[in-house]
Amino acid sequence: MSEPEMDGAAPTAVVDSLVADQGQPSDGVLLRVRSLLPEFTGALRRVAEQVLTDPAAASRATIVELAERSGTSPATVTRFCRALGFDGYADLRLGIAAETGRARSAGWTVDIGREIQPNDPLERVLGQIMAADTRAMHDTAALLDLAEVERAATAIAAARRVNIFGASGSALVGEEMQFSLHRIGVPVWAWTDVHNGLASAALSRPGDVALGVSHSGETGETIELLAEASSRGATTVALTSFPRSPLAELADIVLLTATQATTFRPDALSARHPQLVVLDLLYVAVAQRTHERSHAAFQRTAQAVHGHKAAKDGTRHD
What fold, for 4-105? Predict the structure, then answer.
């Protein structure tokens, strides 16, 4: 049943602002819906959630049917279309239909939106995870601004020191990046403790780089650490899935990732692989810009640990 009294949860001014910021919609309609989801409240959010839950059904539904399924009204669906940059509902349906069609053509035959059941065979679970991760990787590649990657790589290559901040699962991603950069001679530290991280951030100065990792972009500790480094003149980089998040708003450079959640793997967990892909790209870009130094450092570090990779009988331990 529709709830017209809730349709005003997102004022027209907010919708107009979203349209102005986003411009005309590109190919990633569902990706755009996911990235704007935190901006939606009330009835608009329910429409967005309905579209994401079953994109194929949304592409076939009339405006009245979508309104009924989301418990809103046709007027709300129209405002939702405007928030995505579409002139009307017909354009939204075509956009979703084209995207779901491309997914089928790419071989993503598994219903990504389907919930994984406790009794599902592992073959189906594997297919579900592979389809979701593959889709997230492709969406991330479409979303990522390579010019921002270039800027971040140039800053890290010239940095006196690099601090990486992250909490929980994002801390693990940050530590992977720290390990990679460390092996090619970049002076880099990954901090998970707020006190130690703040102490290091406070010693930042112009020319240093601070990288904050947070899927939501709303982790208070990571925001605080990046803000401290920024206040000392460091170049700040945010790796997040939400361009309007507090972390993204704070950073000088923003690297965006996409996610595709599955049962038992909500967005925060499913974001790990896209995050690692983006950071791997950034690492390679840094190595390219410091090729001679990086190659020499990698050779030396590889030689230093070589003796621990093989036993005297030649058996490998890695």
Answer: Arc Repressor Mutant, subunit A (1.10.10)
